[in-house]
Design goal:
Layout lengths: L3 H23 L6 H23 L4 H13 L2 H24 L5 H7 L3 H13 L5 H21 L11 H27 L5 H5 L6 H27 L11 H23 L2 H23 L5 H18 L10 E3 L1 H5 L19 E3 L4 E3 L8
Antiparallel strand pairs: 1-2, 2-3
Helix pairs in contact: 1-11, 1-12, 2-3, 2-10, 2-11, 3-10, 4-8, 4-10, 5-7, 6-8, 7-12, 7-13, 12-13
InterPro entries: EmrE-like, Nuc_sug_transpt
Subcellular location: Membrane
Membrane topology: Multi-pass membrane protein
């Protein structure tokens, strides 16, 4: 049986590492970034729809019917995606403002707070429980990523000087990133349609593809606004101006990357995603050294050591003590006000509770993993 956790994690590391190199090559030309955003959101939407058709054994009519009923018919799900798209839009816009008030190095350092804020909001939104050792591992990971970033950067004059306002904005971005990541995981793992028919129906469309179709379709509209703004403020605007094969590589990698991140979050969680991103940062720096002759300082290798140490400490269950299981009812996650009726009920009426330990998430109607 294929270990989807491991496969999605490896793909995440490879995609991020390759993305670092391809983006660096693509910057040789000055293409319009807003156009690439629109293209990879469209591509992600198409890929999700193709997967749904494949899952229906190529039955296009059945696939369209399922998407219309379960995806387009889930109004509440779309409203959640609008909120998520708003968080992402806020992130992109404030990021540009923040870089006008802080140096690039300061931004890279302070923004790594997102590693801890993501875990904090996972506790808040998903009732996730982390052992003290795991919190320490996440802090070590954060420090390791900062040291790697600083150790791999070459001193360059920064146009922006660091200010208190800039620091505050970057901290806000780190918090916003944690909120968006944890909220996306909550929707992906716990969302149930408000419509009674959809709620009681056995889903035809996998939740991962459904969520991505909803998010991508909303993001396409937001991206269109960005393209229109670029077109109206740029003289002689051309959509595919200065596109190269590396630009198209960025589009494909970003589209696939969004789906890979969803898979990692679904089969693991956001903390595992952050560890994968950190590992890919290290690999990307090493590859940049080989391909572009970037210089790696001794500080970089100190950062690598911290990243590797944090991965070991977080992943070794022998350091965590006994597992802590938390039972989370849908009313806790969705904010419903209904009371419990007798601690769990019978088999057919068992609520869609989830059981979380420190390393995995699985439903109560499934046996826990054998150790």
């Amino acid at each position: 049986m294929v270990d989807l956790k491991a496969v999605s994690f490896v793909l995440l590391v490879l995609q991020n590492t390759l993305g670092t190199i391809v983006i660096k090559y693509s910057r040789a030309t000055k293409y319009h970034g807003t156009t690439t955003v629109l293209l990879y959101e469209l591509l992600k939407l198409v890929l999700c729809l193709v997967v749904v058709v494949v899952q229906k054994q190529g039955n296009l009519r059945h696939a369209v019917q399922s998407v219309r009923l379960e995806v387009l018919g889930d109004t509440q799900g779309y409203l959640k995606m609008v909120l998520l798209a708003a968080l992402y839009s806020f992130q992109n816009n404030v990021q540009l403002l923040a870089l006008d008030h802080v140096s690039a190095a300061t931004y890279a350092i302070v923004y790594q707070l997102k590693i801890v804020t993501t875990a904090f909001f996972m506790v808040l939104f998903l009732k996730r429980s982390f052992h003290t050792v795991q919190w320490v591992a996440m802090v070590v990971l954060m420090v390791g990523v900062v040291v790697c970033s600083v150790g791999n950067s070459t001193p360059a004059p920064d146009k922006a000087s660091t200010s208190a306002v800039g620091i505050f904005m970057v901290v806000g971005l780190a918090v916003n990133s944690g909120v968006a990541a944890a909220y996306f995981e909550k929707v992906l793992k716990t969302h149930k349609p408000a419509d009674a028919i959809l709620r009681n129906r056995v889903p035809d469309v996998d939740p991962m593809w459904k969520t991505n179709i909803q998010l991508a379709s909303v993001s396409v509209l937001v991206a269109c606004v960005g393209v229109v703004h670029t077109a109206t403020t740029t003289r002689g605007f051309a959509f595919f101006d200065e596109y190269t094969k590396f630009t198209w590589g960025v589009v494909w990698l970003q589209a696939c990357g969004g789906l890979i991140v969803s898979a990692v979050v679904r089969y693991s969680d956001n903390v595992v995603k952050n560890f994968g991103t950190a590992i890919s940062l290290v690999l990307g720096c090493v590859l940049s050294n080989l391909l572009f002759d970037d210089q790696l300082s001794p500080m970089f290798f100190v950062g690598v050591t911290l990243v590797v140490l944090s991965v070991y400490v977080y992943g070794d269950s022998r350091l965590h003590g006994p597992a802590v299981h938390v039972k989370v009812e849908p009313r806790d996650l969705e904010g419903a006000s209904s009371k419990d009726k007798g601690g769990g009920g019978g088999g057919g009426d068992l609520p869609q509770a989830v059981v979380l330990n420190q390393r995995a998430m699985y439903r109560v109607d499934e046996p826990p993993p054998i150790k």
